[in-house]
Structure formats: structure tokens, C-alpha cells
Amino acid sequence: MGRSVLVTGGNRGIGLAIARSFAQAGDDVTITYRSGEPPEGLAGVRCDVTDSESVDAAFTEVEAAQGPVEVLVANAGITRDTLLLRMSEADFTDVLDTNLTGAFRVAKRASRGMLRARKGRVVFISSVVGLLGSPGQLNYAASKAGLIGLARSMARELGSRNITANVVAPGFVESDMTAELTDERRKEILDGIPLGRYASADEVARVVRWVASDDATYVTGAVIPVDGGLGMGH
Questions:
Q1: 185 with 141: CB under 8 angstroms?
Q2: Residue 28 belongs to domain with CATH number
Q3: Exposed, middle or buried, 25 (CB in 10 Å: 0-12/13-18/19+)?
Q4: pLDDT in tens, 128-186
Q5: Where are the alpha helices (DSSP H) in 43-101?
Q6: Has residue 231 been placed in a domain?
Q7: Of 116, 138, 178, 224, whose CA is between 20 and 30 Å from 62?
Q8: Which regions form coiled coils (predicted)?
């Protein structure tokens, strides 16, 4: 029988690849999205992770359709890139509220059912930027670094109930955004990646699915890089 899986921000990019990977494995998958329509072939529910009531309503809808969430992938996130002296307080707090506090909101709501079931898998999608830092991304890097503390504290707090909490930290992934980079910037990035290429979203998705699988039942509090070696040692 498939598990009940919820992927936040699963309507595009890495989130969509993760959702499709779980669905292909036979799980019951719902994605959250803020605008537009859910991707073809996947169930979707509107949710704003900056709003606790919206999060609760989304979980209630998912629970009615496919049962309590057994696997949560906290992927929803935004960027507001700019240099420190140009970054407004709103630029900083909005990114933290979505990327970090939003992950807290969905993890807290998911933990209710997981504690009752005495099992669960939570995967936070961070970034190599949260380990290395990046000029022009103080807000984003801070939010992604914060996920590590969040996951490791959850791992210690909920581990006795057979609930794992892990972090997957992708590096540069082939996307519409990276495709728009200049040749010079692409070369600069690739020169820093030992494997000499970007990841595909599917490569990230396979790692997420593994860490949420029965093959990783003794893995918790881990930070798993999927970055081609870019951040090794951090």
C-alpha cells in the first residue's frame, strides 16, 4: 500500500520532480501550490505556508483524501536576492517566514498524525548556499541554514516515536533560472563543481525518496548534499 505523501511547493522544479518520484513509486501524493493549477496527474491543494490557518486547512483536506501525512517534504520557498546594504527588512523577514518558519508550520502540523501513528518521515529541502553562504543571498542562506537546526532538533525530540527528520541540500540544478545565466557565469559556477555539471531535478528527487524510504530507517538528523561536490567539507 502506498503512503500518504505531502510535498509543499510541489508545482514546479525540484518539488514537482520529488512529487512525481513518490507517485511513480506508488505513493498517494498531494502537492501544495499558491497560484495557478496543480500539475497534470497530481493532486493539489492551495496553501500559503506563511499562514497557519491555510496550513491547517490544507492538511485537513489531504487527510480526508488520503489519510494522515506519513511523509512530509518541506520544499516551499522563495528568494529575494540583493546585497546586504540594499536588502530591506521585509526582504529578509519574508524569505525567513516562507522558507524557515513555513517549514516549521508544516512540520508541526504533520507531527500530530505522525506522533499518533508512531512513525513518520520529514525531509527539509535546504541548499548548498545554506552551508557555503552566497553574496546577495543573506536572507536565503540564513533560512536554508536554519532548516538544519530545525531538522536536528526534531530528530532528537521525535526520534523515540520512530519519526525521522533529515535535510537534503541541493547545489545548482538545471532549471529555467540557470538556463538564463550568461556563459561566463555558467563557466564560473561549473569551475567550482568537481563533477563539472549541474544536477537534474530527478537526481535530487531520488535522494529525497531514498531518505524517506525503508532503506533509510536509521538515518535521522542528517544533511545530505546533492551538489556534485561543491560544498564538501561543510
A1: no
A2: 3.40.50.720
A3: middle
A4: 999 999 999 999 999 999 999 999 999 999 999 999 999 999 999 997 767 777 888 88
A5: 52-66, 89-96
A6: no
A7: 224
A8: none
